[in-house]
From TrEMBL:
Any one Gene Ontology cellular component term annotated for this protein: peroxisome
Domain of life: Eukaryota
Residue positions binding urate: 59-60, 171, 188, 254-255, 281
Listed name of the protein: Uricase
Keyword ATP-binding: no
Binding positions for O2 per the UniProt entry: 281
Gene3D superfamilies given in the database record: Urate Oxidase
Catalytic reaction equation(s): urate + O2 + H2O = 5-hydroxyisourate + H2O2
EC code(s) of this entry: 1.7.3.3
UniProtKB keywords: Oxidoreductase, Peroxisome, Purine metabolism
GO MF term (any one): urate oxidase activity
Amino acid sequence: MSALAYLSSARYGKDAVRVFRVVRERSTHTVVEYNVKVLLEGNIDISYTKADNSVIVATDSIKNITYYLAKVSPHILIPERFAVHLGTHIVSKYAHIHKAFVDIEQLRWSRIVVGKDGKPQPHPHSFFRDGEEKRTVKVQIDGTAGKDKIQAHVSAGINDLLVLKSTGSSFTSFIRDEYTLLKEVDDRIFSTSVDLNYTFAPINISPPRDEKKLDIVIPALDQAKSGSVWDSTVLDRARTVTLEVFAEDESASVQATLYKMAEKIIAENADIQTVSYALPNKHYIPVDMSYMGLDNITPAKAEVFQPVAAPSGFITATVSRK
C-alpha cells in the first residue's frame, strides 16, 4: 500500500436499469416506466486496494434485485416509496453495506381518453406519452448508525417541464455599464425548461420484519401525513404551483418568479425543507423587419420571433424553510 495515498471514498452500483411495470386490477391496468440507478457504500475498500472481490455485490445482482422488487413490491407505482423500499432492502440484507443511493426517473404515460356512448372515458389499458417531462426521485438510505436505526433522505421533483408565456414578463433596471448592450423591455416572451427539486426532512425507517428483509413499514396512502414524503399528492401540488405562479405572476425577472414558486411550495407542504429550481432561458428574439417598413421590434407589435438556443441565461436558487 502506498504511503502517499489512501482510498478516501468509494461508491459503485448499476446505472440505467430500465423498468416497465404493468399492475393489473381485473380489466384495468396501470403502468409505470422508470430509469433506475442504485449505488452502494460500505466496507468495500479491499475491492479497490487489494483486488479482493469478496465484498462486492455484483452490479448485475443489483440490477436483478431492482427487477425483483419491481415485481413484488406493493409500492412500485409511487417512485418515492419504491426507492425507499429498494434501498432499505439492500442495506438491510447485506451487513457490510451501510448506504444505498437510489435515483429514479419516471417517464410519462397517460391514459388515452376515448368516446363511449357519447361520454369520453379513460381507456383501461391504452396509454400515450404526453410530453418529455420527467418525475425524479433521489433517496439515500443510511444504515451507518446500525441496521435498526436506518434513516431515509428523500428528494423529488420534475425535470424538463417546458413552459412559455407570450406576455406578462419584463426585465428592467439591471446594471448598465460599458459591457451592457441589452435593452430594457417591459414586455417579452418568458420561456424555460423547469427543473424542480425539493427535499424532505429525514425520516426513520423501521427494520424489515421478515427474514428476506422485504417487509418494511410504509404508511398507507390514506394515512400519510399531508406534505410528507409519504404524501402522494405533493408532486401534483408542486407542479400546480409551478405552472400557476409562472402563468399569473407579472414577472420582473426569472429570479423573482422562481422565488415566489419555491416559497409557495414550502408553505403548502409541511415536511419540505428546501426547494431548488434551475431555469434556463429559452430565448425568442423579435425579427427586425424595419428594412421592409414593418415594426416587429416594439414589444406591443412584436409577433414574429426567432427561437435562439444558445447562448442562454441560466438561473438557479435554493429556498429553505426557516
